[in-house]
Amino acid sequence: MSQLPDPESLRLLVLVGDVGSLGGAAARLGLTQPSASKRLSMLERRLGLVLVDRTRRGSQLTDAGRAVAGWAQRVLQEMEGLLTGTEALRTKRDAELRVAASMTVAECLVPGWIGELRRTRPELYVGLQVTNSEQVPDLLRSGAVDLGFVESPRAPAGLSARQVARDRLLVVVAPGHPWTRRRRPLGVAELVAAPLVLRERGSGTRETLDQALRKAGVGEPLPLLELGSATAVRNAVIAGTGPAVISELAVAADLADGRLVSVEVEGIDLRRDLRAVWTSGRVPVGPAAELLAVTRRRGKKA
Hints:
Arc Repressor Mutant, subunit A, 12 helices, 23% strand, LysR family transcriptional regulator, LysR_HTH_N, WH-like_DNA-bd_sf
């Protein structure tokens, strides 16, 4: 496997596309133009593509360069989320804001929310506990955290809640699976009869699926494999283990890039609300209130 591109080279490529100038992009990153040119040439050799058209009038991305820059932008955003999330995990003991989040929300949304909050409050330490939706209320009631995020179909009893995002579960398979050749939607009875890669019991994803199947008048899903995170489920499906029911948030990039295929199912409603939760009778204040405000702003942009 060839060596992966370094983040600074990807940042440089994205900036060349934004400003239309290698010199301008180099200046923004604190590089000399020869150094930036050498870095881009190394990236082109590593990928085996011509990414930048260099002329006297400036530097423009080629068609291949624009495609790679779009992918690079997503990679850089994911890396920022990774760094923000891992920092929150490291600092949870001495955090000024203690947050608990269910797996899917923690993987897909919380790093972006915390990152935006930290841009206005760089001194703020945020501690994050990642668990399933069933455990978040217990952490709130015990005083271990100030704010929680869950993906269960109902708001937990005894807690105040606010919807912060909408999501839906999708049935996904690897390319080449027989379900990708269907001309009609999958029936809910066919879904429940098929061995599936599932989230564990106690997760909001599993609770949402179980409740939707009960409303549809069919039995429980047949587990082929039960896993503790959306990422693990996604990886199992990509590897060809079998079909899965998973959050759209967790597989949006995989669907766009063709690593996974969504299969339409009729006779079942898999939409759900994602909620912030906190102790009843207490109005969130300080950093908790600021984080809630970030989720509202992000929700309006979605």
